[in-house]
Amino acid sequence: MPLLEAAYELPASGVAGFPWDWVDGNTTSGQNVVAASGFHGTPVFGTQVNGQLRFADADAAQTGVLNAFFWCNVAHDFFYLLGFREVDGNYQTVDKLTKGRPGDPMTVSVFSTPSTNFGNVQAVQDGLPPDMLLAQHPTTGRQAALDAEVVLHEYTHAVTERLAAGRLSWNVAAKPQGRAMAEGLSDFFALSILEHLGAPTSPRRAFGVWVANDAVHGLRRVPYDAQFAATFADLGGFKDEHDAGQVWAMTLFRSAEALGQLVGDAERGVRMTWQLVLDSLKVLAAGHSGPSFLDARDALLSAANPPPKKPEFSGLSAPVLAQSIRAVFSRMGMGPGATSKGAAFKGVQADFS
Q1: pLDDT class for 337, splitting at 50, 70, 90?
Q2: Which range of residues forms the domain containing residue 256?
């Protein structure tokens, strides 16, 4: 099912023919995604019924493949609408605008075995297919491919790599703050996309609730709620990039909230934040040590000046937009006087002014 037939409004992309069909033939393989059981294994076959492709007889293992295939296609179309296109090295079998390298749809392999690394993605140069690997959670036994949050989280990692590193490079998140920021970005997009689509548990403030079988914390140390207390000042106390990444994710959640208050529309605030974050990744100055939180702060402010030429930003001036965003960064300890020694966790100096 292309995104056009989903139960939510599709903004204009400005590209003829978009969105393209998700399937070629009668399997979980198409323009944007190739999903299969096992490593580069067998896709799921469907049956044509009255002109529609149905996967009614899928077994438990195949259901994971189908779910991952569906949500990766949603992610492709979502990020395409935001501006992750062929020239940026997006993931497509055929580059419709002939401005990138074809032959790199998202390749998803679903395993029916437990793994400590139950969700990960490896993105490489434009023209080479990235590998998303999904397996069962080692403790709960739940299949990560059945958790839309995990699938969207991993897809966002691939987007971050291509946008921040450039389509002919990869591994931009090699240093601690870069890795943490990538985790935070993926949590933010996964949760906010599903909340925006009207998921039953909206608002979503805990990541990986289903796969972790933990309704309070999910896969993270704490939920993204009003009690979240960590800031940039706490980075030196973190060792795990997922824990540290929560600081960046919370910065984005609070930015969306602040922008929603600015325009009097919470959903519009989320859409504005999506656009600013994606645009900021295109101008992120990673430096020799990889991007720091402060590099990403500056990139986001740069993306807001001038405001994007999108309906969500209509009537907003650059100073007003920047003031709202800067207030959030100051609240999170990333005010104008904050400093960081490269992209390590140690040696950061917060500024709450």
Answers
A1: very high
A2: 172-353
